[in-house]
Amino acid sequence: MTDHPIYPDLAGASVFITGGGSGIGAALTEGFLQQGARAAFVQRSDASAFCDQMKEKTGTAPLFLPTDITDLDALRAALDAAAEAHGPVRVLVNNAADDSRHDTLGIDEAFWDASMAINLKPYFFAAQKVIPGMQAAGGGAIVNMSSISYMMATHGYAPYITANAAITGLTRTLAREFGPDGIRVNALLPGMVVTQRQLDKWLTPEGMEQHLERQCLKRTLGPEDMVGGTLFLASNASAAMTAQALVLDGGVVTTG
Q: Which family does it belong to (predicted)?
């Protein structure tokens, strides 16, 4: 992993990451462990091997809590377990998502609801669960992983794109409501981050070439490229930053 600046305030911090054992989430878990944070994460698939790898690589194993985040009671129980093990969650990273491609005209109500159940609903209820502890502690940071997809007028996964537009809206309303409690809420918007899952399921060399043409930086982005921005948003280095959307896409979309 690329070396990152050390943020002293993250040492010992209780950090909770959804989908933290694979793809971007795995890179984020490693990044927080390298900061000395006490990292816990959830995902459905087994991540025991990843935890062993992190123990060998960083000296600390993350707390893996097998959880289907669409089961909100299970998600809340996992958050309680993380708080019991590491102290009240000080940094929440809502990361888990499903960007599978599909035909818009073939989407039925059940598929739509299932997509929202993974791509949007857990973001709100995880935040709702940790905010009281952050209030009691005098502050905290929530980082919501969104996507530039909704800013590009792209297609092929309408529910996911819709959810990511909503995540930015959710970020801003939570930041407004809980800013007086010292809780900062920001969104991080990745561009095309190449993971093994995407290569296996839908990303073709032609598609990657077309996307690179849109980027200012002419290289593929990997999960490690999302770590620095997330650590920054989670740390006191961004103490005056909230309700913002930080784009990490190699220069495809522009803000401001």
A: Belongs to the short-chain dehydrogenases/reductases (SDR) family.
The four Cα atoms 64, 87, 170, 7 give a dihedral, to 10 degrees, of -90
- The residues, any chain, with a CB within 8 Å of residue 181's CB and separated by 6 or more, are 131, 134, 135, 138, 139
97/77 Cα distance (integer angstroms): 20
Q: Right CATH number for 8-248 from 3.40.50.720, 3.40.1190.20, 3.40.50.1820, 3.40.50.10300?
A: 3.40.50.720
> Which CB contacts under 8 angstroms, 24+ apart, belong to 61-68?
62/20, 62/29, 62/33, 63/38, 63/39, 64/21, 64/40, 65/40, 65/41, 66/42, 67/42, 67/43, 68/44
For the chain, give the mean pLDDT. 95
Residue 213 · residue 192 · CB < 8 Å: no
Catalytic site includes residue 160: yes
Residues 54 and 25 sit within 8 Å (Cβ to Cβ): no
Which of the residues 7, 150, 157, 160 is marked catalytic? 160
Q: Are strands 245-248 and 183-190 parallel, antiparallel or unpaired?
A: parallel
Q: What's the pLDDT band for 197 if we cut at 50, 70, 90?
A: confident
- Per residue in 129-181, pLDDT tens? 999 999 999 999 999 999 999 998 788 899 999 999 999 999 999 999 999 99
pLDDT for 96: 96
Here the tokens at position 111 are 């598929």
Domain definitions of the chain by residue range: 8-248
